[in-house]
Design brief:
By secondary structure, the chain is an alpha+beta fold. The protein is built from 3 helices and 4 strands, in the order H-E-E-H-H-E-E. Strand 1 and strand 2 form a beta hairpin.
């Protein structure tokens, strides 16, 4: 799952509390003008990656915006 996100430019990295932070938003420029739309799209895309890789039993994606990161965080449900 991390490999798939990395291939699409999200730069996943381990963060505090056993979370995965996405150090890059591939849609950052667009998100500056349409944050709600782009963050919702990122959340759905990451959830789709989790579902497609069979990771939804162990991991869940949620919105958790922080400066310098994508708005999505991944952690155990």
């Amino acid at each position: 799952m991390l490999h798939v996100l990395a291939q699409h430019g999200y730069q996943p990295e381990l963060a505090d509390h056993d979370e995965v932070a996405l150090a890059n938003c591939p849609f950052h420029r667009l998100a500056q003008e349409h944050r709600t739309l782009v963050c919702g799209m990122n959340l759905d895309l990451v959830r789709g990656v989790l579902d497609g890789t069979g990771s939804t039993d162990q991991l869940a994606a949620r919105l958790a915006p922080q400066p310098g990161y994508c708005c999505v965080r991944i952690a155990a449900p």
